[in-house]
Amino acid sequence: MPRTYFKVGTKEYVGPTLRDIIEKNKDLRAQYSYEGYMGILRYAGKVGGEFWFAIFFPMRFEESYARSLGHTNARWYKEWKQENVGKTVPFAGKGGTLQGGDITIAGPQPTPFFASGGSRASIEKSYRVEVVAKGTNLTIRVVFRLGMIAFHGRDAFLKVPAQEYARVVQEVERTIRLRVLSQQQTEEGIDPRILGQDSRSKIDADLRPSFMKERAAL
To answer: Which of 9, 59, 60, 80 is the most exposed place for a label (fewest CB within 10 A)?
Structure first.
């Protein structure tokens, strides 16, 4: 019976977990060294993390999706941002934070989690995917600097609902099945860069799949 791994309100989401995917592919342990096997899991986990960032990070700046995460902005604030697109305005106190100063409002507005665009740019520039594989556990972390979002809507922005988790699990499984096991059948075998994947390094560009089709389908 599929297990319930998340509950959101009255909704239940069922399906495989990351641990289930590792168990499903446990035969790989007998075919490679411990480090090689861990490298495969780390690689698949990093692809899953990159998938999350490519697909679900930009969706946080869409009004309907941000609301589904629990983010709300007062009407006056949305109107204020719309009226001031392109203008340099003070951003402190009620309309901003005590850490704020003068900012230039970027468009389009209203956009959740977005005023000058500085926080989004900071995240895009600083993000990295870290994966820890140990035994039957796989932990995927997407690490970045939040910028001013740390003071406005942090909990909603960092929330990972069940449907996001489910899609990441699917991407990890697909990576093992289509990119790792398919290489296993070739004369060259699995790319040694996959087998040697460590916890923090970036995936080489030619080993990183494109997620454009998945993004366009949403």
So the answer is: 9
